[in-house]
Amino acid sequence: MNIKRYKKEFNSKGFFLIENFYTKEEVKEIKLLLRKANKKKIIKTEVKGKFIRIENLKHTGVYNIIHNKKLKKIFDIFNFNPVLFKDKYIFKQKGIENSYGLHFDGLFKSYNYRLQRKTLGWYTYATKFFSMNIMLDNNSKKNGCLYVHKKLKGTPNSLFKKHIKDNKPFFENKKIKRNSLPIECPSGSILIFDNLCPHYSKNNKTEMPRGNIYLSYCNSKNKKVYHQFDYDKKLLIQNIGQKEFDNRTRK
After folding, report:
1. How far apart are CA 98 and CA 94, in angstroms?
2. What's this model's pTM, rounded to 2 decimal places?
3. Burial class (CB in 10 A: 0-12, 13-18, 19+), 243
4. Which of 134, 150, 205, 232 is deepest in the core (most CB within 10 A)?
């Protein structure tokens, strides 16, 4: 692995891709663990009777495979110790709306009922974030791969004021969309990107489902930040209702 190259790409563009990072056997085992997940511990979202998302992957056992020695070497490129912040498994299928509009990860305004004040998304918990997209199937334009733009310059507050101005993270910008790179690659590949890289995806138009895991990490010194974020999210849903929460997370 060319660690220097990945570090240079991350510092210049805000993202880098490593193809075939996980073996076929590892991908197969991750998929098996997801299928066998304890339904009482995970958060499962369904549309038209078919599941499209699983959250709380810590309960599935996939991290025993994902957090291997190779990944730890990759994480050495960051000037902080990455702490797991949130996770999700997205399962795209034909005929189900599963695109995701242009957005920055974690950049939105929301009322935090634990703190009893309005906060700036993820920045309630830490100051630096990056996400890792693990492709469990081949990713292509046809099956809804991720499109990623290089990291935009500016502070989280300035980018929010310029592009968002809402409790929804989505925004429209034809130039950013036009200059975003489609991440087409084989299963087992990983994409690591800064949360201030705008990105989006389209629907899966093929007959075969496409599954990706998205893991976000941060520089929080709170080792329980994963549980804190999960608790705050549940508290928000209790107060605004599931319907309103779902509306905020859709384009």
Report:
1. 9
2. 0.94
3. exposed
4. 134
Q: How many CB atoms lie within 10 A of CB 48?
A: 9
For CA atoms 108, 123, 232, 226, give the dihedral sign.
positive
Q: In the chain, how many domains are there?
A: 1
* Distance, CA of 99 to CA of 33 (rounded, Å): 25
pLDDT tens per residue across span 201-239: 999 999 999 999 999 999 999 989 999 999 999 999 999
> Which CATH number characterizes residue 102's domain?
2.60.120.620
Contact by Cβ (8 Å): 89, 213: yes
Which residues, 6+ apart, have CB-to-CB distance to 72 below 8 Å?
none
CA distance 55 to 86: 8
Give the phi and the psi of residue 62 in degrees, each rounded to 5: -65, -25
Write out the residue range of the structural domain in which residue 93 sits.
3-248
d(CA 23, CA 1): 15
Most distant pair of Cα atoms in the chain: their distance: 47
First to last CA, the chain: 37
> What count of other Cβ atoms lies within 10 Å of the Cβ of residue 209?
16
